[in-house]
Every structure is written in C-alpha cells, then in structure tokens.
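Quick question about two entries, pasted in order.
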Amino acid sequence: MSLNLQSSDFELFGLPERFAQDRAAIDARWKELPVIMITSRIAQKHRDHAAELGVDHYLGKPYSEEDLLALIGRYTAHSAPA
C-alpha cells in the first residue's frame, strides 16, 4: 500500500500536539507525507501553529471542493508512478 497524502482536522486530534507526536512516531517514510489540514479554526494563530507542527497546507471551513481537489492533485502528482 502506498500513501501520497494525509488530510486531517484540528478538532479530531483533541490537542494539535498529538499530531506532531504521532507524525514523529510514524515510520520514517511517512515523515515526508504531505499533510492538508481542514478545520473551522481559521485564526492566524491556528494557521501558524499548524505550520509549526509540519502541516503543508491549511484549509479553513467552509472550503471549496475544487480547491481541495486541486491541492490533492498538486501534492500527489509528483509521487504518481511513471
């Protein structure tokens, strides 16, 4: 099984630090896995915190399906098999 992307919501973690702990404990191959976070927490302090935790892209709710699909395409295009 090959993973190309992770998508998460801040609220699902309980504490955002759990994300960082889990990511650090994951197999080394997953540490480079792009992460898109989708959340209703749209204040800049939450965006900054997500960046500190290693989130690659932050989408605030509501978000457009087209934007999400474009991001998925962007992050998975480079890892697609040749």
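Here is the second entry:
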Amino acid sequence: MSERLHLWGTPSEDGGSLPAGTWRVARSYRAAFFLELFETLFAAAGFYFLSRFIESPQLERALPPGTSYFSFALVGLAFFDYLSVALRAFDEGLQDARQTARSSICSSHRPRFQ
C-alpha cells in the first residue's frame, strides 16, 4: 500500500483509520482548488476570445508597444486577484480587531473622551 493512500484515510497498520472528517476536509480543499483552476482557465479563455473579437488598429495603438489586449488583460486579471486577496486579508484583520476590542491599536490616533 502506498504512503499516499495511507495518508488519505485507508486503514493504518494498527487497524485504526483517520477520522471521517479529515477525508471530507481534504476533499473539499481539493474541490476548491480545481474550481479555482477552472475559473482561471475559463477567464483566460474568455479574455483570449474577447481579444480576438475586438482586435483593431486603434486598440493596438492604445496599448503599450509589443503587447496585445490578451496579455494586458491577463496581467490585469492577476493583479486584480492579488489585490482582492490582500484587501480581504486586511478587512478580516480589521474585523477581528474590532470584535476583540483592539480597534484602538488599528487606528492611527487615540480616541478623545470628553
């Protein structure tokens, strides 16, 4: 029996097995990964066909030299995903600080009480 099969919930040598919840969690991460991969490939294909559809001399002059709309859109998509992750992490950190009453640490000045 291979090590990989052993790690994913097949019975161990002592007769026990991993909890059923472990298998469900691992499977959900794998499913999320493949859904994210499919979403990325679908978006890239969409931008490719959109770039072929709107190809024109005016667009070529508007873009930086040596680039196409497809490459420009892929870089923009990657940057947008990166920015979304960064803003989501920042927002979750602020929400956590508010919920645990540490919001004065996050602010740039101390609140004035009168």
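Reply: Residues 1-53 form one domain. The chain has five helices and no strands. Hope that helps.
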